[in-house]
Amino acid sequence: MLSVSEAEKIILNLVKPFDPEIDSEILPLAQAIARVLAKDIKSELDIPHWDNSAMDGYALRFADLDNIQDLRLPITSDEIPAGVAIAQTLAKGQCVRIFTGGMLPDGADTVIMQEDTERIDNFLQLKVNPTQGEYIRHKGEFIRSGAVLLSAGTKLEATEIGALASARCQQVKVYRQPKVAIISTGNELVSLDSSQPLQLGQIIDSNLCALSALVTQAGAIAIPFGTVRDDKTELEAVMQKAIASADIVISTGGVSVGDYDYVEELLEKMGADIHVRAVAIKPGKPLTVASLTPALKVTESEGKVLYFGVPGNPVSAMMSFWRFIRGAIAKLNGANETYWYPQFIQAIATEDLHSQGRRETYLWGKLTYQKGKPVFQPVSNYSSGNLISAIGANALAVLRVNQTYIAAGDEAIVMII
Ligand code: AMP
Ligand code: MG
């Protein structure tokens, strides 16, 4: 059986990132949140645009302080608020009132913050010895005009959107969002929108909703294909349709060794290459990863469609997504390599963590900070069928193969989800 890292490698190697020319669009900046840049963006401006004050205070010429007594200077009658272009040069031996963002007058090279001064009539008494050049934001100090502000492959979060706006970038070229089709399989499943009373033996299809939510959170477009019975003909028809309309397909259920598990068989029938059949991970061992060229194609992409058959147990299905599918979506979406892998940190386990040691084991729980240190609190019930137990989980403690125990108080590797 493949190890987790082998499976991760195989999956990422199967993903051919979007083509920046074909799979991209131009969006107004405000609509580009959570999208991935398809092109480097250079700053059109020097930022700051001119030397300006970082404080409310007084601008002066540092060298003048050598010639004055008692750190006391005359204040000019001018004031320099933000937004005003000042023409005069600061006269020797004088200082001028300036406000945050105000343009530094020629001649001045230092700003004294208001709190370090006292105004006595038209004189300024400095209460501290200033440092030359302080409290000035120099022209081009943050970025120079023409320099790369953000490179292709960067995901645009709020900070990036703001930084782009500050450089007067009105629109951006971003990758289109990947389309991810989702299918739930199982005779026992009843779709959430059904109005029929639940019969004995039936359960609500929660995976369709949970996976759609995960796909949306990952910045892709979820296309739910609904709940399908364990019927080969019916399932094949839905799989064909999903494959034709998406870049990635995820189906849940039907990938174990049960008599009603048809996903792999159908993929083979459709001529798919099967790259992964199972992974030494707990939960989430039955994982089918295949690639295939759809018989019929309605999406923009030329490449093959990647198919993930994940287990039906709700936490297992999510685990496959967290550990393998999220990174694949990020790579497909043109995001740079830092987004392809989960984030791991070290945290102190609050309780003993156990594993049988045969598979890499992921235990869900809550990562918090106590006295500034990361702490992992596991849940008390690890049934992969119990999604309720995962409510509020934001992290997974990882026990490697052959690692059967981590004692309370010891450090564990924790994956952030
Ligand atoms: P399977 O992988 O098809 O053998 O399913 C494993 C377990 O997960 C069974 O108990 C199923 O009832 C349950 N299950 C399968 N699909 C879903 C789903 N879409 N939503 C909730 N539970 C499911
Ligand atoms: Mg099933």
Relative strand content? 25-35%
The number of helical runs is 6
**Secondary structure: number of strands:** 28
Shape: elongated
Mean residue pLDDT: 95
Could you estimate the helical fraction of the residues in percent?
10-25%
Taking the sheet with the most strands, its summary is: 6 strands, mixed
Q: What ligand molecules are bound, each kind once?
A: adenosine monophosphate, magnesium ion
Radius of gyration: 30 Å
Which stretches of 5+ consecutive residues score pLDDT under 50? Answer: none
Q: Report the end-to-end length measured between terminal Cα atoms.
A: 25 Å
Oligomer: single chain
| Structural class assignment | alpha/beta
The order of strands across the largest sheet is 7-4-6-5-9-8
Quick rundown:
With 417 residues, this protein is α/β, with parallel strands linked by helices. Helix content is 17%, strand content 31%.
Describe the overall structure:
The chain has 417 residues and is of the alpha/beta class. It has helices spanning 4-14, 158-166, 207-217, 232-245, 263-269, 314-332; strands spanning 24-28, 41-42, 52-53, 57-60, 72-80, 95-98, 110-113, 117-120, 123-126, 136-137, 148-150, 171-175, 179-185, 189-190, 203-204, 221-228, 248-252, 273-276, 281-282, 288-292, 305-310, 343-349, 353-354, 360-370, 373-378, 395-399, 405-406, 411-416. Strands 7-4-6-5-9-8 form a six-stranded mixed sheet, with no helix packed on it. A six-stranded mixed sheet has the order 16-13-17-21-20-18, sandwiched between helices. It has a five-stranded mixed barrel with strand order 22-25-24-26-28. A hairpin with a 2-residue loop joins strand 24 and strand 25. The model has no long low-confidence stretch (mean pLDDT 95). Magnesium ion (MG) binds next to loops.
